[in-house]
Design goal:
There is one protein chain. This protein is of the alpha/beta class and 419 residues long. The protein folds into two domains: 140 residues, Aspartate Aminotransferase, domain 1, CATH 3.90.1150.10; 220 residues, 3-Layer(aba) Sandwich (Aspartate Aminotransferase, domain 2). 39% of the residues lie in helices and 14% in strands. The chain is built from 16 helices and 13 strands. The strands form three sheets. It has a seven-stranded mixed sheet with strand order 2-8-7-6-5-3-4, sandwiched between helices. Helix 4 runs parallel beside helix 11. The longest helix has 25 residues.
Amino acid sequence: MAQPLNIPLIDVRDTKECVSGIKKFKYRQVEMQKRLVRIANAVLDLEPDEPEKAGYRDGDIDPSALRLNNNESMVGPSPEVMSAIKNFLDNGLLNRFPDPRAARLKSSIAQYSGMPDEYIGCYPGTGISLENILRVFLEPGAEMLISGPVPADRVTAARSAGSSVAEANFDNPFSPSLEPIIDNIRRRTRILYLGNPSEYIGSFFSEAELVFLLAYAENTMIVIDESYFEFSGFSVADLVRKFPNLTVIRSLSHAFGLAALNVGYVITDPENLDFINRLSAGTAIDAISQIAAEAALKDRDYMRKYVSMVNRSKDLISSNLPEIGYDFYISPANFFILRVSDPKSTCEYLKNNGVLVKDLSEIKQLEGYIRITIGMPEESDRLLLLLSRTAERFATGFNRNRITRSLSRPEIKTQSQLA
């Protein structure tokens, strides 16, 4: 046990004595036993953050490596974005605070989404968007329900509020159903979080299923994460007019190529937003990110061309992987799931050949799977060639024929041609 401190009384009216006493106390601190201020119980129970598991510990990786592990855009953002950022810097505006409500960006998002301004809130990424929402609706004794595997920060945010987290599991994670979710909705279920498509495997719910869920769980805030909306082409954002218990969150990180700036937004009933914004002080999107996001939303053709290229890559992958001998699932988002005999060895082999992918094997029901971002056709071609060379070792399908020739289709556009 740490010994109590014997701090001598100091006459504060005597400046020299006061300073001398403070110095002596500081010197004594070196010998004191380190003792932290009491940590909140909800935080003590959280798992330590391990960013290297998410693929961020890559300082020793060749910069030319093909990063197919984080569902990022495989091309840079629109040239309009780079021009807008340059103009902002040239005008010397870094000394100005950003608009905390991002009014201009909100107006651009309203035009893009087809929803009125008052239904939209802008925040730094989907993680902060969700955290603001959870702080409004969760409290000790309340519960957040999730379906299938979700990013760790979603669970952490709920538990840090002192709330419990329940999980609805499906017999087949690639074919979700409403029954396990409905069975787990209880009186204390305040939040239901669904990725649509989901973050790890791209599982998907139809509009009819979600409408039923919204009507059934009218006392639960249902948060639909549509971060991959541009790839899936599916949204229920228009339903927020009818269902006040619906909140949609989206991101400009993936299809718009703004992952480094991390811009997200929320679409929900204005009364929900009023409370969310009460807790969002200090979480404003920085000025450069706002400028970049506005420019990206103006150049939607650039984004659509990239999505088209990703769809072209999906065709390339889905037509060749069966021939190579792999079991796989192409998601509605910008990634696919590959089943292999040894996920860790497969990831290591690809890494040694300059390709980074996401190992999912430590996630329940996803043992034996890896996740791979889908980018430009020439990048998919490179990936397929690597997978074909090691098919005899890692493939799980029936046809183990190797493909050693180039799989690229003619007239594949490069990044510069995309612009």
